[in-house]
UniProtKB/TrEMBL annotation:
This is tRNA (guanine-N(1)-)-methyltransferase. Pfam families: tRNA_m1G_MT. It catalyses: guanosine(37) in tRNA + S-adenosyl-L-methionine = N(1)-methylguanosine(37) in tRNA + S-adenosyl-L-homocysteine + H(+). It comes from Streptosporangium canum. Residues 1-232 form the tRNA methyltransferase TRMD/TRM10-type domain. Keywords: Cytoplasm, Methyltransferase, S-adenosyl-L-methionine, Transferase, tRNA processing. Belongs to the RNA methyltransferase TrmD family.
């Protein structure tokens, strides 16, 4: 997968050299290109922002440098088109489902903004020609979109074939489609069996795979009920077996 990022802080993306994503880059699974937006500014101060029309606080990113920068990235492969992802707290929520959708794309272009965001005509211009998604990573406001890009590249990158390897797998993750859809993963344990008086739940030492799977599902349901009621409400009743229904009813949520 090719990933381009245009930003006034390309140095922000140093973490993409580390760990799982760094290895995926070394192995050529992820081909990441970082660009300095100011390279496409025209004045001596390399200005990329200006005051907002209509007044108000803060500054807005000017359309011209963005347009020229995006055009230059698009020219890298005129036969193809990237999916453009504009991080903004006003966007659609970034979810595991969207991460999977992005993992199936050959080319992503991220345009993280600083200040109050990018002049909206940039999204209108490219949105008329290709897929442009405005995406938020959570209901809070960051100082800029760079961290949001790191979050999305990591979530997408670990889903690419060959990145996690066989020992790991994304199928048991929280939110993974299938059995874990709308469920949070439960608690995990490793050796020693007792630590500071806390014991590992006995069932996990039993070697009984069926009972362990059932216990894990119970814990996932419990944790979801405790931490994310709105996810519990979104559970598809078709995916609930008799035991699930009994547990949910005990927890005070009759299916
Ligand atoms: N830029 C600032 N805050 C953001 C958020 N929550 N998600 C994506 N981009 C952002």
């Amino acid at each position: 997968m090719r990933v381009d990022v245009i930003s006034i802080f390309p140095e922000y993306f140093a973490p993409l050299d580390v760990s799982l994503i760094g290895k995926a880059r070394e192995r050529g699974i992820l081909d990441i290109h970082l660009h300095q937006l100011r390279d496409w500014a025209r004045d001596v101060h390399r200005t990329v922002d200006d005051t907002p029309y209509g007044g108000g606080p803060g500054m807005v990113m000017k359309p011209e440098p963005w347009g020229e920068a995006i055009d230059a990235v698009l020219a890298a492969d005129p036969a193809a088109q990237p999916r453009i992802i504009v991080p903004t707290p006003s966007g659609v929520p970034f979810t595991q489902k969207l991460a999977m959708e992005y993992a199936a794309e050959p080319w992503l272009l991220f345009t993280p903004a600083r200040y109050e965001g990018i002049d909206s005509r940039v999204m209108a211009e490219y949105g008329a020609r290709m897929r442009v998604d405005e995406v938020g990573i959570g209901d809070y406001v960051l100082a800029g979109g760079e961290v949001a890009v790191l979050v999305m590249v990591e979530a997408v990158g670990r889903l690419l074939p060959g990145v996690l390897g066989n020992a790991h797998s994304a199928v048991d993750d929280s939110f993974a489609p299938g059995a874990m859809e709308n469920l949070l993963e439960g608690p995990v344990y490793t050796k020693p069996p007792e630590w500071r008086g806390h014991e590992v739940p006995e069932i996990l030492l039993s070697g009984h795979h069926g009972k362990i799977a059932r216990w894990r599902r119970d814990e996932a349901l419990r944790r979801t009920a405790r931490n994310r009621l709105e996810l519990l409400a979104a559970l598809d009743p078709e995916t609930l077996d008799k035991h699930d229904r009994k547990l949910l009813s005990e927890l005070g949520f009759p299916a």
